[in-house]
């Protein structure tokens, strides 16, 4: 007998983590099999769903099979909502339903919901199980995997947190159809990052399928999410606590973070700043004759075709260098700059000079589109 099995075409990626390994299930309509996955892994019977008003309004129908968990707890998302106050709201809800250690917290949303709900789950009764159902590209390919959780403090981003691996991640690219174009592209720059650091064919495949990707065709998106999750899973499996290998995930993030900081986190979505940062990192490689011009050109062409980025021409180089310097202090004095000698490979440079960064910033500033995209 042939019976319909939701999520049958989903792929499973196993992540190694300290306490217990966990699967990442990736597939178009994988959410349809969420109930089945939870039951099969013994993640129940008591569950609590946590989401944001926006995500729940757009996608609540997909979670009908979990109706017996009761009404969801909705907390705001967006970077400004990533606060201890909202963690407290999640904790309040857990206490109110008298959740004990057996509770399974299901976080449904982007990276902000995932990070803050993950942190609440890490601290409630010193740790209860959490399942991530990421709904942004950023969350599906990055934040839901690896067990880093936390919130911002008014004096800095992600200053409060804990490592708390999930028990299951279900990434369903069909939910990405409702993302704003800018949020959607912002996550895709991180997919390009995975191509640069670990899988050159991903860059070629993205370039070839660009119209279908931009149209959010699940058949085009699923292989990208799958490939990205595999790379992130492999890296964090080998380096759960970020000692060395995990550093390659920071490709493009030295200059990217500096651009975000120099504009007080107001101008860029994270991925947009990373797009510039990746071009700067490749440019430094080209100037050292470490990276080929063809590699730089291939990534530039892909980023350009994907869509516009915010203008950077008015950001003072001095401010960007100051922000990089601050990052360096955090790293005990040595800047570990990740370069890409060839697409698909990385090398760590510890001797990148200010002059080299200046030259890269000059090059990338020239790439900027005329039209401002701050509001698109
Ligand atoms: N834990 C980690 O390892 C890790 C890694 C990378 C990023 N992060 C964190 O992730 C956060 C960024 O995540 P994000 O970009 O997903 O931001 P986000 O969670 O704020 O989501 C961005 C916006 O998209 C909306 N949204 C979410 N899903 C949607 C959907 N399917 N349709 C329509 N709108 C939707 C949200 O309401 C929000 O307005 C940052 O706080 C960052 O620090 C964490
Ligand atoms: Zn990033």
List the helices and strands and how they pair.
Elements: E1 11-15, E2 22-26, H1 34-40, E3 47-51, H2 53-59, E4 73-74, H3 84-96, E5 104-109, H4 111-123, E6 129-134, H5 137-143, E7 148-153, E8 156-163, E9 168-171, H6 181-198, H7 200-208, H8 210-214, H9 218-238, H10 253-262, H11 270-287, H12 293-306, H13 317-330, E10 337-339, E11 347-349, H14 354-365
Parallel strand pairs: 2-9, 3-4, 3-5, 5-6, 6-9
Antiparallel strand pairs: 1-2, 7-8, 10-11
Helix pairs in contact: 3-4, 4-5, 5-6, 5-9, 6-7, 6-9, 6-11, 7-12, 10-11, 10-13, 11-12, 11-14
Notes on the protein architecture:
By secondary structure, the chain is an alpha/beta fold. 45% of the residues lie in helices and 14% in strands. It has 14 helices and 11 strands. The strands form 3 sheets. A 7-stranded mixed beta sheet has the order 1-2-9-6-5-3-4, sandwiched between helices. Strands 7-8 form a two-stranded antiparallel ribbon. Strand 1 and strand 2 form a beta hairpin. Helix 5 runs parallel beside helix 9 and helix 11 crosses helix 14. It is globular, with a radius of gyration of 20 Å. The N terminus and C terminus are likely disordered. Bound molecules: nicotinamide-adenine-dinucleotide and zinc ion (ZN). Zinc ion binds next to helix 11.
């Amino acid at each position: 007998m042939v019976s319909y099995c939701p999520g049958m075409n989903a792929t499973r990626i196993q992540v190694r983590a300290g306490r217990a390994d966990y699967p990442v299930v990736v597939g178009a309509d994988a959410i349809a099999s969420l109930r089945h996955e939870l039951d099969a892994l013994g993640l129940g019977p008591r569950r609590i769903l946590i989401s944001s008003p926006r995500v729940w309004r757009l996608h609540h129908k997909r979670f009908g099979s979990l109706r017996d968990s009761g009404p969801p707890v909705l907390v705001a998302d967006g970077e400004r909502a990533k606060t201890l106050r909202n963690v407290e709201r999640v904790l309040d809800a857990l206490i109110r339903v008298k959740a004990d250690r057996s509770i399974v917290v299901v976080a449904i949303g982007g990276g902000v919901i995932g990070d803050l709900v993950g942190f609440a789950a890490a601290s409630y009764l010193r740790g209860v199980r959490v399942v991530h159902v990421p709904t942004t590209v950023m969350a599906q390919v990055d934040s839901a995997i690896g067990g880093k959780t936390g919130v911002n403090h008014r004096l800095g981003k992600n200053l409060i947190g804990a490592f708390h691996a999930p028990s299951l991640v279900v990434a369903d690219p069909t939910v990405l159809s409702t993302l704003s174009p800018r949020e959607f592209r912002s996550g895709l720059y991180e997919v390009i990052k995975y191509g640069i650091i670990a899988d050159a064919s991903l860059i070629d495949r993205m370039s070839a399928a660009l119209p279908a990707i931009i149209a959010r065709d699940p058949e085009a998106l699923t292989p990208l999410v799958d490939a990205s999750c595999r790379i992130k899973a492999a890296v964090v499996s080998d380096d759960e606590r970020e000692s060395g290998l995990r550093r390659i995930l920071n490709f493009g993030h030295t200059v990217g973070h500096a651009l975000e900081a120099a504009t007080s986190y107001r101008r860029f979505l994270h991925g947009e700043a990373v797009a510039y940062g990746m071009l700067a990192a490749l440019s430094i490689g080209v100037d050292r004759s470490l990276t080929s011009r063809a590699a730089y050109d291939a990534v530039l062409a892909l980023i350009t075709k994907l869509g516009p980025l915010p203008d950077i021409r008015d950001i003072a180089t001095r401010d960007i260098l100051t922000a990089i310097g601050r990052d360096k202090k955090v790293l005990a004095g040595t800047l570990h700059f990740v370069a890409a000698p060839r697409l698909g490979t990385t090398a760590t440079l510890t001797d990148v000079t200010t002059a080299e960064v200046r030259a890269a910033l000059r090059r990338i500033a020239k790439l900027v589109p005329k039209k401002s995209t701050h509001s698109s």
